[in-house]
Amino acid sequence: MTDWFHLSAYEWSALRLSLIVALWAVAASLPIGIALAWLLARRVFPGKFLIDALLHLPLVVPPVVVGYLLLVLFGRNGVIGHWLEATFGIVFAFNWKGAALAAAVMAFPLMVRAIRLSIENVDTGIEAAARTLGAGPLRVFFTVTLPLSLPGVISGLIIAFARCLGEFGATITFVSNIPGETQTLPLALYTYTQMPNGEAGAMKLCVISILIAVLALIASEVVGRYLQSRMRGQERP
Amino acid sequence: MKVEIQHQQGDFRLDVSFHGAKRGITALYGPSGAGKSTIIQIVAGLRRPSSGHISLNGICLFSSKEGINLPPEKRRIGTIFQDSRLLPHLSVLSNLNYGRRLLPVAARFIEFDPVIELLGIRHLLRRRPADLSGGEKKRVAIGRALLMSPAILLMDEPLNSLDSLRKQELLPFIRQVSDVFNIPILFVSHFPDEIRALADDIVVIRDGRVVNFGTAAEVEMT
Fold this sequence. Notes:
The complex is a heterodimer.
Chain A: H1 9-42, H2 48-60, H3 63-74, H4 79-87, H5 96-120, H6 124-132, H7 137-148, H8 150-165, H9 169-175, H10 185-193, H11 199-230
Chain B: E1 2-9, E2 12-19, E3 25-29, H1 36-44, E4 51-56, E5 59-63, E6 68-69, E7 77-80, H2 92-101, H3 112-119, H4 134-146, E8 152-156, H5 164-181, E9 185-189, H6 192-198, E10 201-206, E11 209-215
Parallel strand pairs in B: 3-9, 3-10, 7-8, 8-9
Antiparallel strand pairs in B: 1-2, 1-4, 4-5, 5-6, 10-11
Helix pairs in contact in B: 2-4, 4-5
């Protein structure tokens, strides 16, 4: 008989780690995501097509490939990984930071896409009006563009968060499956399926995963509607 | 204000030269497509002309020869667009204060209360732009531009989207804004009746060129 309301220490640790990894992944990539989304939405520059394609790569290549590339680049002997450890003492290999990096990379295209679309929807005429009122480009960004694209930023954030929670292939390839360190919910679930008598545990984690995902979607919807109603009636000529 | 600009945009060539008086209302008059809105955008700094020279009260805003091109936020030109372009996420009060707050106190020569009284928008301060009628939005947009204590006001067909009744209501406000606050206005319109009601000087524009220029009494509008 499965006790649905009791989580073992093993399951708790996976759940906690998943949330920490996803939160860090989303928080750390958000500023970069916003900057990149703005660049892609508002600027024309050489190599834009290339950056756009590169950005979408994690969506189209197998996650294992991303994980392997991360291992090659950010492993202790990888070009970037070695430099990061020597310069800042930051290590991504086989710890939760690596799991967060893998999750961030996999979720990044979804985040940027949502933010970019909402920035593209901001009326450039209103930005121009703010310029004539004495606001420089940076101030216009923070007082006009960003607030007006907030619904997209929030939905990008939540979609990315949900994607991070579900990250599997890149994570297990890059940082392996270490309980308490890199074993997030999907990895713990996978481990259960490999164990004799693991079905009950697997089902429990499966339900938890679905619950979190549904909660995230509801939150996104509620916040989105609230913001939309606050900014309702964006002017049209 | 001295404007002398050439601008190529696809097949359309703009080549105009005119003076705006130090006070009163100067109207740019001409059919749609004559290049009036482009002139406004160029003067406001939102579009860079191919070549030319723009100066305001002896300050050079743009000069292709000297490589000067002041960005819009440094020009101190209050601009009122066809669509009012209020910031939809801010209250009317915050909209009015947006430009004013960015200005050093010493540079503010237009005070808040007189503007609010003149435009009759005190009862709107707490509302959001989406809750305003077209005429109210226009008045708030005029107030917002005025409160940044501009050296000049540009108005790009400000009455365009309003029905004739609202137009008649707004016309006297524009006249008073110029008289009471002693700010020159460059007013763009393709309606002769608006021009007759408001303009002190008229610049007639056709196909990207100035075809006539003079005081309202001198220029015949056909």
